[in-house]
What we know:
single chain; alpha/beta; 7-stranded antiparallel sheet; binds flavin-adenine dinucleotide
Amino acid sequence: MFISVPASTHPYDCCVIGSGPAGIxxxxxxxxANRTVLMFETGAARDVREDMPGAVxxxxxxxxxxxxxxxxxLGGTSRVWxxxxxxxxxxxFDNPATGVAWPIARADLVPYYRRAxxxxxxxxxxxxxxxxxxxxxxxxxxxxxxxxxFGLKYFDALERSSKVHVVLGCSVVGLDANxxxxxxxxxxxxHHPTGRMHRLDVGxxxxxxxxxxxxxxxxxxxxxxxxxxxxxGNESGLVGRFLMEHPHFHGVAELVVDEAHDSxxxxxxxxxxxxxRYGLLGSTVICERPxxxxxxADHLAREHGRPFHHYTCAMMSxxxxxxxxxxxxxxxxxxxxxxxxxxxxxxxxxDLVNVETTLRLLGESLIASGKGRVRIVNDRLYRRAGGGGxxxxxxxxxxxxxxxxxxxxxxxxxxxxLFVAGSSVFPTGGYANPTLTILxxxxxxxxxxVAEQS
Length: 454
Ligand SMILES: Cc1cc2nc3c(=O)[nH]c(=O)nc-3n(C[C@H](O)[C@H](O)[C@H](O)COP(=O)(O)OP(=O)(O)OC[C@H]3O[C@@H](n4cnc5c(N)ncnc54)[C@H](O)[C@@H]3O)c2cc1C
């Protein structure tokens, strides 16, 4: 149900900060296991707010990019997402080319991926959507259908639930812990409609889950404390670092092959053998706008005596995690006294050359098998890369508290009751759109919290 202002004593099993796909999935899953949840959402039920004005953007993506991709409303950024769903590949969890491994494997997530498919109204078979296509490459189509808008789809479930209490228009602006930094004891929140600050005491058994999105998670865990001590949750000093996006390249290549596919069916990725042999980062070639009327298709048709089809290709790719790409706080504060974030995100030469290498290998494979051709559009690759609104890595997961922020259970190292949900925990991003993995991790976290509190 929706409530107006939280009580100062915290009688809930779990406090979830943020009501995007991660927060709503976690909250409803906990409620289904008879746990009580208090969920905070900065935004309103319906009116969308892009709430980061003043944020600074350095690098390949400017301020508008980050504003447009951090939506403040019930359901978070799912209000504008496109609904493309895909799992990470097995090698994304431990790809030597990235220099960092996840502390979990794909197999740990597969049962949760299947459950997550249901949350976004997809068939669980999307988890296995991969088949060989040409030497070195597999077909990995996205699941693409009407995007689930979490705040609309799950509004009634939240309203009816006696277990989940949702406070709208309320930002959590700071966390305080005990002296030994093992337990979060209070959360400070600002209620926008009344302009009042509330202090919430966290009960000894309660859990806090920060689920404010890739920027929002870092923003909260970087907020300075009045006593000048290290912000709660940033004992590693790594919060905000290793920010990753998925570089997007529109019209980056033309592909001509002897197969007809509908738009978005021909979606290709290097297979494991090629990825290992050539040290590739993740990337996918998305072949769009099929036509038989193209000079190169005509030429190959005449030469081979069968029809050829021309596609315009977009690509999405992986960024190497780098400590220099990061979310940081600017000196500017909002009405709640919350320091606004700035972002630095630079695509490196390795990220771009990886796309070129993948396209070149695809072209060579097509020529060797007599199947077709690839033409790279250099300008689109090296000068026009954009982002996808996939904000990852800012509270990375790992075994060691000196090199990561959360452990394999998404618990902030050293804390008993502080957790993070969302793509900020991804140590690497692969190329797959992140939300299905965010949901799988949220379901896995829910199981963990239920087990711990039983
Ligand atoms: C244009 C666009 C297209 C996209 N398309 C796809 C796609 O096709 N496939 C895909 O997988 N992904 C896509 N994404 C990404 C997808 O939207 C995100 O991965 C997903 O929404 C992240 O979920 P989240 O719950 O972690 O965070 P968010 O959805 O960002 O939600 C976070 C919520 O927390 C709230 N919040 C933040 N801080 C606080 C605080 N301190 N106190 C209280 N509340 C707080 C915010 O207001 C927000 O409502 C797209 C994104 C955009 C912008």
